[in-house]
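Task: fold both queries, return tokens.
Query 1:
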Amino acid sequence: MAGATRVFAAQTVGLPVYGPSGESIGKVRDIVAALRLDRKPPRVLGIVVELPTRRPIFVPMLRITSVAGDGISLATGSVSLRQFEQRRTEVLVSGQLIGTKVRIATTTAAATIVDAAIEQTRTRDWIVDRIAVRERSGMLTRRAPVQVLGWTDVRGLDLTDFTDSTNLRTEQLLASFEGIRAADAASAIRELPPARRYEIADALDDDRLADVIEELPEDDQKDLLAHLDDARAADILEAMDPDDAADLLAELPTGLSERLLELMEPEESAPVRRLLQYSFDTVGGLMTPEPIVMTPDATVAEALARVRSPDLTPALASMVFVCRPPQATPTGRYLGVVHTQRLLREAPFGLVAAAIDTQVARLSPTGTLAEVTRFFAAYNLVCAPVVDDEEHLLGAVTVDDVLDHLLPDNWREEGIGDIPNRPRSTPRLKDAGRS
């Protein structure tokens, strides 16, 4: 696209829009961006063009060939002449974003957005990457100067405040959750006021809410769980990974924890109860009781089919544990592991017994966090078997579980990109475009 690669929204309002032959089409009324709940800059979807007849239409950014101070040019191709109607997951940059009250992240000072810059990326997409703000003051003094900050340098920007309907705001939030990772959704939920958090928790299905709760800090987990009635809370715990559910239950008052366990289905509560027997700073407290377990007479094709499950984390999918029946933990006699890379090199009709690695060291459920950390550092693995004295496989520890306990206690509050690069003396032992 020729012309400017960064332009401020206020400068585009009223600019003439020209067709491929240079004919006048109309003028720019606003810029349309996609709502996001994570901290990434919103993607610009297109512009609202006001025709000579005063009808507003939507023009996708892909139809724009250049943005310049004297106008915007369109490429050859058809454009819908239907009247523009704002969708629930969209925000008008000039009409709605400008004027919004925010906080400056570095100083926590209150400010107001006075303009926003859109920029074209290497992928030729346009994003709202910079925001011009002016600090607010209650005193009758000279106005503060304008500061141009990155999108991630402001806080408190709730993009769902651009409508007066509470139900509509909730629908916008839910729509914005689609397609983003649970960790990003959890970060977005933490930015919302308590009442809005509860609205979202009530509207999300059990599996999605469980995924989000797993990514929240401990205090926020307990707060959301306390908001739910006991029956729904038990359903959420059932949908969580057993190790995460056990960690959360261990932080609740004993009476409430036991009441929720009683409400859970027996087959769902049994592995959680087993995990609660171990101290949080031991291998047993870190492990998941649901790794991939197969008998030695299973085929390579069957093992690969299990590995392909989208419900598995990459770490758990890195190896298959081979045991005598029963396959549910605690299993029959533990025989060894088969690495997924090895499975990919074997014939599909072969047996996993022929590919067993018996040399992988085992972890004891009573081992310490320091021991499991040394294990992963020494063997360059991302998953390890946990075996008791009677040769039963109890579960598996993954490197992400270990990192979760080694990182600072408040790493979820600070965010992935904000974790300071400092040593710890005491480890924690515990968008598509518009169509």
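Query 1 returned. Query 2:
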Amino acid sequence: MRTVISLVAAVLGLSVLSPLAPAGAASSGVSRMLLTPTSDPSTSQYVSWSRRSATSGQRVVAVARDGTTLTVPARRKLGTSTRTAGSRQYRYYARLSGLAPSTRYRYRIVGKGFASAWREFTTAGGASQTFRLLQFGDTQIDNDAVPERIIDRATRQHPEARLLLQAGDVVNKPWVGREWSELARALTPSGQRSNWISSIGNHEQCRLTSPCRSGTGRGFRSYFQFPSNGYPEQRRTWFFVDRGPARIIVLDTFGKDLKRQSAFLANALRTNRRAWSIVLMHSGPFASRGDRKNTEMRRWFLPVMERYDADLVLSGHDHSYARGRKAGVTYLTSVSGPKYYDSSSKDWKRGGATRVKSAYRTSTYQVVTVTPTKLAVRAVVGHRGKGAKPSSKVGSTLDSFTLTR
């Protein structure tokens, strides 16, 4: 294997690094590397990264264990600006295609005079292959503190989880560069070996926050890469990804096109041939904060979820933990940072749902095991704020349930 790689490297004019080579992103000028999925992560993969200056001739090299090598030129994407994201970053991505399912690849970014360290990702399996994902709620503030510790704990405990979901509000003030730097640290190293999916929140696009500037979510749209499903007039921040026995549908709940998203959601649910439908959205149909009424979410999305049999809906926004059901659909709201709101069942009752589990000032991450016949969810305590209820210890299971076919 090493001989094959050496020969390939010689042809490409590259140096050969072992998987444990100390050369890092800082020495290569490559930063903020992130894996995000295409619509079919069993055969393709997005890799994106930042540089401080515009650089031509970059490419991603991926090598399978059998020596099969793929080299893909980089494409420049929307960058960030000092005004809307606090720093000027030139953002690049590459789409690796024609990959083999359930296969481990070593990859790195190369260019004139530099090469990043080797990293690894593993492609998804087929439609019936069991897999595990981790899900996080709002992080929003101090990403390099509580959220980073929660993400690190979760990914260390579950290194087999190659898909990581986050329910929006990845930063608090999108025009502050330090917050994006803290986010990048929180998503390292997990974001270089596992796929991250985040639903855009209200803070990233200056909704319900003032004064604020974001260039219509430019930092978020620059940092993450989004798959296209070929839906008419589809926007970048709503899409779906098929992995194993599940279709994960991502919505932009503070977008100005909720009617169009509702139709997209209906189509995604109706055409799903996988065993499970999981919806990821920043603001769920039922608010867990006592002074909120999530009537717009119920108006546009609830009837669709019920009619076309969504299974699990994951959300954030309310900075507390709550789980409930309505018309056969399970709804779960969580927080994965140190900012908390009160916990109330008022809006759940107002919307005709039953809240069956809740927690106050308790941050969690969710471990979701997906098989063709079961969807098992376990909420693990990642952090406890002052006055947290119930008195669950960090690392313990706060809540668990299983959906079956």
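Both queries returned. Flag for query 2: The domain at 131-404 is CATH 3.60.21.10 (Purple Acid Phosphatase; chain A, domain 2).
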